[in-house]
């Protein structure tokens, strides 16, 4: 499902509303809400909105569990850290327990070993079904999502829930949820806006199936819902 909005602010509001709705529903039905955050600059406005007085009181944060879709393998105080941005805009401003937050980085271990540990953490909270209530994703200009980049071996992963690898073009390690795990989710919300997203969005949604080139095409929920929140510019309708 593609929903087109006039402005980024409208996208942020819709995404925040979906986050709240999913949280309230999950907590009412299961007693907890499991969410996956995305990095980059795109979600900052969403997180700030969720941290505002108008939104944060709508969620029982003591029953919220936070994970990430991917992370650059850098310390949590590094400006490249997705977690750092998430704390600055959201997590440091809401009453969520530290033990309910699962950052995708740990000092003193290899990214490959930590990927195994991170999967174990997911299984501990979600069980072997591995079904998140809500996953927020962005989409790169090249059609990547999370750290599922074009041409990388991680695109073919079928068994691991979490994988880590060295991304040569960026000269750094990345750790990411894999497509099979993402696709288990109850709801997946993809945010994309701006002129640079036009080609990727068109190819991902209406082009031939070529996930090696456009990895976002791998995101096809098993039984949940996939929603694209885009602006008119990205949709090519402006």
Automatic annotation (TrEMBL):
<dbReference type="GO" id="GO:0006098">
    <property type="term" value="P:pentose-phosphate shunt"/>
</dbReference>
<comment type="function">
    <text>Hydrolysis of 6-phosphogluconolactone to 6-phosphogluconate.</text>
</comment>
<dbReference type="InterPro" id="IPR005900">
    <property type="entry name" value="6-phosphogluconolactonase_DevB"/>
</dbReference>
<dbReference type="InterPro" id="IPR006148">
    <property type="entry name" value="Glc/Gal-6P_isomerase"/>
</dbReference>
<keyword id="KW-0378">Hydrolase</keyword>
<comment type="similarity">
    <text>Belongs to the glucosamine/galactosamine-6-phosphate isomerase family. 6-phosphogluconolactonase subfamily.</text>
</comment>
<dbReference type="InterPro" id="IPR037171">
    <property type="entry name" value="NagB/RpiA_transferase-like"/>
</dbReference>
<dbReference type="InterPro" id="IPR039104">
    <property type="entry name" value="6PGL"/>
</dbReference>
<dbReference type="GO" id="GO:0017057">
    <property type="term" value="F:6-phosphogluconolactonase activity"/>
</dbReference>
<feature type="domain" description="Glucosamine/galactosamine-6-phosphate isomerase">
    <location>
        <begin position="7"/>
        <end position="227"/>
    </location>
</feature>
<dbReference type="GO" id="GO:0005975">
    <property type="term" value="P:carbohydrate metabolic process"/>
</dbReference>
<protein>
    <recommendedName>
        <fullName>6-phosphogluconolactonase</fullName>
        <ecNumber>3.1.1.31</ecNumber>
    </recommendedName>
</protein>
<dbReference type="Pfam" id="PF01182">
    <property type="entry name" value="Glucosamine_iso"/>
</dbReference>
<comment type="pathway">
    <text>Carbohydrate degradation; pentose phosphate pathway; D-ribulose 5-phosphate from D-glucose 6-phosphate (oxidative stage): step 2/3.</text>
</comment>
